[in-house]
Design brief:
The protein is of the alpha+beta class. The protein has helices spanning 74-103, 110-123, 127-144, 154-166, 171-187, 192-195, 212-221, 224-236, 240-244, 282-295, 313-323, 346-359, 364-371, 376-382, 388-399, 412-419; strands at residues 7-16, 19-30, 36-43, 46-49, 53-61, 64-71, 251-252, 257-260, 276-279. The N and C termini lie far apart (62 Å). The structure holds zinc ion.
Length: 427
């Protein structure tokens, strides 16, 4: 019988009382809630903090002990452990089930159906959907312990919701997983009306954008490579990976345009696979000209020292924000060890960009093109209805007491125009 147990260990650098530090593997330490305490290990029964290192999964393949890299993130390592445990269990189950299939081949295997579904997403070129399908079916199959699709009941789905919540997932994430699971079961021919309970409810939050003051504050402190990187996020609405892969020929100096395109030599594909051109505001263009004087010989505009794409822009941005004292100081991120403020991120800059362009009375189709979305629905999700302050200002403008003049032409047309919200989200 195969040993299906998987343990998370941390391969880390340990100080040996003033002597040279050594690299060793220790079991990952758990907190009171049973989750891995990020960066902590157990040495001689005592928790010890070892920030330098990464997680590995320890398991047996037959009689051989194996270690598999599970990355730096404690939560991801936990997920990887669960997936591996499921895989090891599935190997055993598949052997047993293989016999059953022959006997009872009109029943559909849950695991096999999941594999078919994932393959179908891939065949359709929906790579992101394939990854999500893989995650949700892995988790679900591992958790229910059922072999056949026809064994599934509503209780299995409720139990899956409960388990996701127990793992600290937000209501919104649970609802998303519910939708993905439903799509899979429908694909597999399950009567989802009978099996699926109602979608879990969650409170929809308004998308946040940065106020003009906040943007101005950020602009006043940005410097060096951060000024260029965040400039692309703020003034061109780029995604982090797009910024990381920009090369000098992407800048059309004469037209003041930026061309965002895939980079096969870096295995970088644009999301939604659509190239696009974005105007570069003069402020950013000036910064870029200065940056080019010192970094113009490199291939990448913001490459690392070893001339590779910088995949840590977001993390560096958060550290920068902390250094210049712009942390909000109240969010969970600010109160964590790394002091990475949750209020600041590239996504919100991108959303602010989208909303600003739209409020400047450009249409949604233009915003869609600038953001590189293949469908309008994605663009709509980015946009935030006008805030109370702005609406207040427009309503004030309509009802403002105007000094009486002898000429009593009322600017009616104009005021109506002011009142029309330019934001189609509200329609
Ligand atoms: Zn914060």
């Amino acid at each position: 019988m195969a040993n299906k147990k998987v343990t998370v260990v941390r391969y880390c650098k340990v100080e040996c009382g003033g002597e040279k530090s050594v690299w060793k593997r220790y079991p990952a330490a758990q907190g009171k809630n049973g989750r891995i305490r990020p960066g902590w290990v157990v040495v001689n029964g005592q928790p010890v903090h070892c920030p330098v290192g990464h997680y590995e999964l320890r398991h047996y393949e037959g009689r051989r002990l194996r270690y598999t890299n599970a990355g730096d993130d404690a939560q991801e390592a936990t997920n990887a452990k669960e997936r591996m445990e499921w895989l090891l269990a599935a190997h055993v189950a598949a052997d047993n089930a293989g016999v059953k299939v022959v006997e009872d081949d009109d029943r559909k295997l849950l695991r096999k159906s999941a594999a078919l579904y994932i393959q179908d997403r891939k065949n359709q070129g929906k790579m992101e959907a394939a990854v999500q399908a893989q995650n949700v079916t892995d988790e679900f199959v591992a958790y229910t312990g059922k072999t056949y699709l026809d064994e599934l009941t509503k209780e299995d789905i409720y139990a899956f919701h409960a388990r996701c919540r127990k793992h600290g997932l937000s209501d919104r994430t649970v609802a998303n997983k519910h939708d993905r699971l439903k799509a899979f079961l429908r694909f597999a021919g399950v009567d989802v009306k009978t099996v699926m309970p109602p979608r879990p409810k969650y409170e929809k939050k308004l998308p946040t954008i940065y106020t003009a003051e906040k943007v101005a504050t950020l602009l006043s402190v940005l410097e060096g490579s951060m000024r260029i990187a965040i400039g692309f996020g703020m003034m061109c609405g780029l995604r982090a990976e797009e910024i990381a892969h920009l090369e000098w020929p992407d800048v059309e100096w004469s037209d003041k345009m930026l061309r965002v395109r895939g980079k096969p030599h870096w295995q970088f594909i644009i999301k939604d696979s659509e190239q696009r051109e974005i105007p570069i505001p003069d402020a950013l263009l000036n910064d870029l000209q200065l940056w080019r004087q010192e970094h113009g010989n490199a291939r990448l505009i913001l490459g690392t020292k070893s001339a590779r794409p910088n995949t840590h822009i977001l993390r560096q941005f958060k550290r920068f924000i902390n250094r210049v004292g712009l942390n909000c100081k109240v969010c969970p991120g600010c109160n964590s060890k790394n002091k990475e403020c949750g209020e600041w991120n590239l996504h919100t800059l991108r959303r602010t960009y989208a909303t600003t362009v739209l409020r400047e009375r450009h249409d949604v189709a233009t915003v869609q093109r600038l953001l590189g979305h293949s469908d309008l629905a994605s663009t709509m999700r980015y946009l935030r209805p006008a805030g109370n302050k702005e609406i207040h200002a427009s309503i004030n403008a309509i009802f403002a007491v105007k000094p009486k003049v002898s000429d009593t032409r009322t600017p009616e047309k104009e005021t109506i125009f002011l009142f029309q919200p330019s934001d189609p989200v509200t329609h």
